[in-house]
Amino acid sequence: MSIEENIETVVSTFQKGRELAESGLPLDELISKLNDFEPRYRSVAFEGASMGVALTDWKNWSEYASATKKHTTQVHIGLGWVVAERPPKSPEGGLDLYLTLEQIAPEMRVKVLDGVGYWHGLFQRRATIRTQQIPEFTTPEYQAGFDQGVGRAIWYITKGEVAKVVNIINHFSEDRRPNLWQGIGVASTFVGGCSDELISELKSVAGEFKLNFETGIEAAEESMRKAQS
Question: What is the residue-wise DSSP string for 55-72?
């Protein structure tokens, strides 16, 4: 499939996973249904379900995370969606970022921030991408994860058009570009549909951030291996 078709599949799979989690299924039945998804996109279903579980009852999320460790990266990214979409002052009530992070293993906190950054890149596009604003809650400690998520959002928004990717990233300050390019590496690998020629072109245009791009590729590949995608 093309990059655009893969993106459409990722989006629909995420939504299906979220809907399953919000339907009130017992945990074992939920996981069984998530495991029925095509292996290539299964972790996306677990990511969507992570959001659904946290939105339905945050107290159940830790149990869900413990039962889905093969998909731990996507599960924590899905939690980041909730933190971004439902802040504490939202009408529905929500999760405080830092109180939530205190309950997360330190090595997974960057994944939660990745989910927060991805959500902001998609749904707060003017502030996050067009004017490159950094939310007040994003401290220097966590900005790398946030920016990686923004980089992933850029890949989805541009549907892998290299010229658009480069143009958008070059509007950001230089200190943010390494993590943006790492996010491009993650997204281009995880979404799929990229030819060898396209990956080579991306490495070329990444320039001094080529290593960051390659690090993102390696991170995505490792996550997919762990999930047996």
Answer: HH-GGGHHHHHHHTGGGH
Average pLDDT of span 141-150:
95
pLDDT at 138: 85
Gyration radius of the chain's alpha carbons:
17
Contact 173, 158 (CB under 8 A): no
Model confidence pLDDT, tens digit, residues 164-175? 999 999 999 999
Residue with the bigger pLDDT between 2 and 212: it is: 212
User: Which whole-number Å values give the CA distances from 180 to 62, 118, 132, 147, in the listed order?
Assistant: 29, 11, 12, 6
Q: Is the Cβ–Cβ distance between 154 and 160 less than 8 Å? A: no
How far apart (Å, rounded) are the C-alpha atoms in residues 114 and 23? 26
Alpha-carbon distances, residue 148 vs 27, 43, 142, 194 (angstroms):
30, 18, 10, 19
Residue 16 exposure: Cα atoms within 13 Å on the Cβ side:
18
CA 137 remoteness from chain centre: 18
Task: Give yes or no for a contact between 201 and 45, defined as CB atoms under 8 angstroms apart.
Answer: no
Report the SS3 class of residue 10.
helix
The token pair at 74 is 């996507």
For residue 131, the 8-state DSSP code is: S
Retrieve residue 205's tokens. Answer: 């245009």
